[in-house]
Amino acid sequence: GMDEVLIDFSDAVAIVAEAAADLTPEKIQLDVEDGVVVYQVELLDTAGQDARFYVNATNGAIHDQNDNDEDTAPNDAFGAAIDIAVASTGSIALEAEAENQGGTLHIEVLLFNEATGLLTELDVAVSSGEILSSLTYEPGPSQAERIAEILALLPDATVTFSEAIAIASKAFPGSQTHEIELKVEDIGLIYEVELIMEFMEIEVHVSAVGGAAETASSHMPLVGDFNLDGTVSVNDVIELIGMWSSTNPLYDLDLHGEVEVSDLLMLLEGFEG
User: Are 191 and 179 in contact (CB under 8 A)?
Assistant: First the structure.
């Protein structure tokens, strides 16, 4: 829990900078890995390749994650789990991520129900297709805005989640899927597919209209930048306060189960005004 956090964001960056002086820190976020609170620090080398380190938030211990511990699922099974989630809820899939908890590989699928206006996170077991857990909550303002943008373009989409995974992985035989997200970019509606192959992360953008694919570099959003404008500002503070006591995981920065004062304090750590 957050009471275990004894070092702050700047300490974590300094620890990584000392260990990897030749790399440039790019992004940092507080996360929980295998029950341990850690800072996940993403850096870039001179060639623009990502490197990732985890810093233990209690004792500052560091370990290099470039041997990659992102959970993945076989591409077909990943797509099938999304199909199960959609069929069981009658909702629109927005994103999905492979997770392995307690030895059970599952796909966490985020869905939007147009009738109720609510989001649901559904965990679907990869091996059995069984639904393991479900959490439903209201979208925050920035989420609602992004969902509206997606819905406006969705009628033109010709490519499904499963097809997008198949298109992305075709160019990288032997890869498995870690994550896929439906999002609006300058070029229109795309699937952002993250593949893992031989300890390498590959991000592929697949057009939802027509299926054209291109590889892309990955950028993790800042902690608390809910509207994705590149800074943590007063608008993000107002948005978090508006979601007070909700169970929406986007705003539950310390992963305690609901939005409360500790989340606001985490947000203020990265505040730029």
Answer: no
The H or E element containing residue 26 is strand 24-33
| Angstrom distance (rounded) from CA 139 to CA 135 | 12
CA distances from 151 to 161, 163, 188 (A): 15, 19, 12
Which of 18, 5, 68 lies closest to 195 in space, CA to CA? 68
Type of residue found at 32: V
Q: What share of the chain is helix, strand, coil (3-state, %, to 5)?
A: 25, 35, 35
Q: What is the DSSP code (8-state) at residue 101?
A: E
Tens of pLDDT along 4-45? 677 888 888 888 887 777 778 788 888 776 566 788 888 877
From residue 239, give the alpha-carbon distance in Å to each of 36, 63, 141, 146.
28, 34, 7, 14
pTM score of the predicted model:
0.69
| Tokens linked to 82 | 């999304």
Enumerate the β-bridge partners of residue 209.
none
